[in-house]
Every structure is written in structure tokens, then in C-alpha cells.
Design goal:
single chain, alpha+beta, Helix Hairpins, HSP40/DNAj peptide-binding domain, 4 domains, four-stranded mixed sheet, 10 helices, 27% strand
Length: 364
């Protein structure tokens, strides 16, 4: 058996590129379209087999260790014509392509209220999208008719042509211009969808928005996007969440924040009050001596956690309101109260940055 390196005329340490170049050079000389002699055909087979062995690292290693290399034409080539077409064109057609294609994905913005985020909500959306044509049911053809085999390519979807090259006549294949590679022709396109198999329409989509979502989160709804051409599968629908701002409550991860105005007298004496929350009434006790920027926590009245269990908390920032207009009687009472307290005058104190930072969005 001839040595593969000698057949290609390369050294044993030749690179893959060197092996390829040597094969191309010999192929141009020995290909049957160029040299029809029997000796050239036999030698071309040897050259092709040698290339197949030496261009594959595993086969080459096996050959160098004393093996014979894989016999025949491995790597998916049935004969030397296949590998020759890989280098010089003329590959065989993979058959007609399908008219059915997957529909495009769609991205929409979905606005939800902050109250809806606490427990989640089901919303119904009306969207304009592509749906399967009800007249032809996605076939693209007028009812009562169907696609017919293309009489140009005879259903193959491609046309074979002979091209002259340095090696002689080489067969190439290209998509059929008559059927555009489909292999069939729709002689009578559906008038409702113009032969597309889909139309633009408005349809309703029901969305389950889970509890705990936040602005920027995207929900994926597989198969709820546009219908594909010719009855192809639907794409996916993506919904990007946008939580609307609330006039009273704001959000800090899974917690809710709000500010409660407290009168000066209630701050001094303490009181109990009830206010309306996003999920019902909330009872809160204000102890005597509460200060502005104090934070009262109501457990488990925040947002339901998106991942995990339980809810966040409601944090209520206290804002003590000092009256700006007083009657003479009120002024006398407060002056009497101040005289009895014998309190020191105003004095500087450390800035409580940590407390104010928690409620910055409410006070500034």
C-alpha cells in the first residue's frame, strides 16, 4: 500500500494546511473532468484517500502509529466527488425548503399598579399581532386549491447548472427561481392573506403577573408571539414590567415605605390611629415622645417575595408637624408649658444621617 505522505508529496511533519494545498494541487491535475485516463482516476482515488487520512487528526495519529487509517472515504463523504465538491463547489442540494417558519418574538411594556405587586394579578391584554389566516388555515392557497409541484425544478427546490472552470465542467446547484426553493408553487394564493398564511389581527392575551415583580423584570410567554408564515409555530411574547409610582407608598425591595404626619400634641402624648394601606386598614400605635424621622415597622405588610416565602414589612416614617398658626389662647398655653419645662435653648446635635437616609425620598 502506498505511503500517504508520498502520495501527496508532503513531509511527515506537514501541517493540515500543507496537506490541503497539496491535495488541491493534485486534484486539479487528476480529476476525471480534467484527465479522463484510467491511471489518473486510480491515482486520484489514492490522493483523495490519503488526504482523508492525513487531514483528520485521529486517523493521522493512528496511521503514524502503524495503522492503515480508515478505509474508504470517511468524514461523511461517499466518494471523491463529494469531497471535490467541498473544495471546488457544486455541492448537492439539501432538498426544498419549507414554507413554514417560526414567527417573530414580541416585546411589550406592561404597566401594573403597586397594589397589584403585593399579591400578583391577572391581566388581560389586547395586542396587535400576526395570527393564522382563518380562510386558508395557514396553507397560503385559496380554499379548494393547494400548492402544486414546481414544473421547473420538479419539486427539488434547486436547479443544477454546468459551470466551466479550470477543471472543466463542474455541476453546481442553486435555488429554483420559479418556486424560490420551496419545490412547490401556489397558483391561487389566498385572497385574505395574500398567500402568506397569516394576517394582522387583534387578539386577547391573559397574563398571570406573579407577586413581587419589579420594574425591568421580563416575563416570557412561550408561543404567544406572532404566528409564523404558512402556519409556522408562534414566536414568544416577552412582557417588560413597569410598576407605576404610588402617591403615598413607595417600595424598597420587598418593603413598603410611607410617611405619617403626626401632630405635635399626639407626638407628645402618644396616640393610636388607623390608615388605609394597599391591602386593607393598618392599625398603628404612636408612643409618647415620638420624634420626626423615627421609623415604625409593621411586620408582614409589605410586598410578597418573588422568590421565597413570606412578605416584607411596612416601614412608617414619622413626621411631627409643628403648627405655624396659633390663636392667642394656644400661644398662652404653650408659653405656660414651656415655662414649666425650664428646657435649655436650641443646641447643635449630631446629624442623624442613617435615619434620614432611609426616608430620603419622602422628606426631600
Amino acid at each position: 500500500m502506498a505511503d500517504h505522505y508520498e502520495v501527496l508529496g508532503v513531509s511527515r511533519d506537514a501541517s493540515v494546511d500543507d496537506v490541503k494545498k497539496a491535495y488541491r494541487k493534485l486534484a486539479r491535475q487528476l480529476h476525471p473532468d480534467v484527465n479522463p485516463s484510467p491511471d489518473a482516476q486510480e491515482r486520484f482515488k489514492l490522493v483523495t484517500h490519503a488526504y482523508e487520512v492525513l487531514s483528520d487528526p485521529v486517523q493521522r495519529q493512528n496511521y503514524d502509529m502503524g495503522g492503515s487509517g480508515q478505509q474508504g472515504f470517511p468524514g461523511g463523504f461517499s466518494d471523491f466527488g463529494d469531497i471535490f465538491s467541498t473544495f471546488f463547489g457544486g455541492g448537492q442540494s439539501a432538498g426544498p425548503r419549507s414554507r413554514k417558519e417560526r414567527g417573530q418574538d414580541a416585546l411589550l411594556m406592561l404597566d401594573v399598579e403597586l397594589a397589584d405587586v403585593i399579591f400578583g394579578v391577572e391581566k388581560s391584554l389586547e395586542i396587535d399581532t400576526a395570527v393564522v389566516c382563518e380562510v386558508c388555515e395557514g396553507s397560503c392557497a385559496q380554499p379548494g386549491t393547494s400548492a402544486v409541484t414546481c414544473d421547473i425544478c420538479r419539486g427539488s427546490g434547486s436547479i443544477a447548472r454546468t459551470v466551466r472552470s479550470l477543471l472543466g465542467n463542474v455541476m453546481t446547484q442553486s435555488p429554483c427561481g420559479s418556486c424560490r426553493g420551496y419545490g412547490t408553487v401556489i397558483a391561487h394564493p389566498c385572497s385574505a392573506c395574500s398567500g402568506q398564511g397569516r394576517v394582522r389581527a387583534r387578539r386577547s392575551v391573559t397574563v398571570d403577573v406573579p407577586a413581587g415583580v419589579d420594574t425591568g423584570l421580563r416575563l416570557q410567554m412561550p408561543g404567544s408571539g406572532e404566528a409564523g408564515p404558512a402556519g409556522g409555530p408562534n414566536g414568544d411574547l416577552y412582557l417588560e414590567i413597569r410598576v407605576r409610582q404610588h402617591d403615598v407608598f413607595s417600595r424598597a425591595q420587598d418593603d413598603l415605605l410611607c410617611t405619617l404626619d403626626v401632630s405635635m400634641t399626639d407626638a407628645i402624648l402618644g396616640t393610636k390611629t388607623t390608615f388605609e394601606g394597599l391591602d386593607g386598614d393598618i392599625d398603628i400605635e404612636i408612643k409618647p415622645g415620638v420624634q420626626s424621622a423615627d421609623v415604625l415597622t409593621v411586620k408582614n405588610r409589605g410586598i410578597t417575595k418573588l422568590r421565597g416565602h413570606g412578605r416584607g414589612d411596612l416601614r412608617v416614617g414619622i413626621h411631627v408637624v409643628t403648627p405655624s398658626k396659633l390663636s392667642n389662647k394656644e400661644k398662652e398655653l404653650i408659653a405656660s408649658f414651656a415655662a414649666g419645662r425650664k428646657a435649655d435653648g436650641p443646641a447643635l446635635a449630631p446629624y442623624q444621617q442613617g435615619i434620614f437616609a432611609k426616608l430620603r425620598g419622602r422628606f426631600f
